[in-house]
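Example record used in the benchmark description.
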Amino acid sequence: MTTSTRRGVLRGTVLGSIAIAAALAACSKKEEAAPQAASAAQAAAPATAASGALKVAFVYVGPVGDGGWSYAHDNARKALEKELGDKVKTTYVESVPESADAERVFRDLVAQGNTLVFGTSFGYMEPMLKVAADNKAVRFEHATGYKTLDNLRTYDSRTYEGAYMAGVVAGGMTKSNVIGVVGSIPIPEVIRNIDSYTLGAQSVNPKVKVRVVWVNEWFNPPKETEGAQSLIDGGADVLLQNTDSSAVLQTAEKNGKYAFGWDSDMTHYGPKAHLASAAINWTPYYIQAAKDAIDGTWKTGKSWWGVKEGAIDLVSISDKVPADLKARVDKVKAGLKDGSFSIWKGPIKDNTGKEVLKDGQVADDAFLGGIKFFVAGVDAPVPGAK
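Model output (structure tokens):
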């Protein structure tokens, strides 16, 4: 999400490198050799392979079976194949650390002839910039990044909109007036989601307090479980996470508490605990990006899609949620879709009492992209804040 965003942690483990090597070897057997570097004129032409199919590659920071972030991206990859049929040929590499390994993976995928490459994690930004600069005939798409080149653009989902809607439900479902969040990395994206969750809950229940536990990783089910349990032990009875696995929902299920799915529909991981899932739908963007590349209209830029574009939604709302809360969510959703409702509209204060948005002031994307404070109601300091 603009400058703010995600997956900035190194995961350069030996096991990860071995897995990548194996995956790349498998890809190499399927793909033909890469063409030599194209001229600037060729770079501006439609990016299709000799066979007529656009070769599209995806690089994931986690396993496709994580049930969350990478799972959502891979579902969209499959939907892209279904929508465009023989016009595209896709491949992917999963569990790629945000390290030197990433650059090797991107270079290998280019060498295999892929001319549209998606890197789905913030920590891929610098490796992608290097590889894109050396391969002008290839289009690169970086999820959650903020740096662009003529052949590299960025895209993201407004996950904070899903967090706000989840907060509306949480505010009405809590009995203790304490709700919790298991946070991954304290970067603006995650802070913004926690804040939006809080604002949503307060819109229904001004008494709500939000507690936060950080695990400092995107995907670590044992740590996520420990974080969720500590929040429950501290009195939280409704949990949200900004991590990639279903561990938080499963922990809530075991403890008889409520929780939400994140990034994907996680209902089946904890059906009794599940209240709803803030699910990302990358499909519309991936289809549009591929069409742009095929017809030669692809150009650099920045995209940040939300409810309006069908990129984020609160799905599978449980029957346990009262009708009036569902109606509130529907009203918010409709307002986000037609532009009549703004989540970040003043007056809003941070949790030190400082006014961050004046009465009636609506935050722009530059403001949202740089959020480094917790709003009033979050019972925690921002790590590293002075």
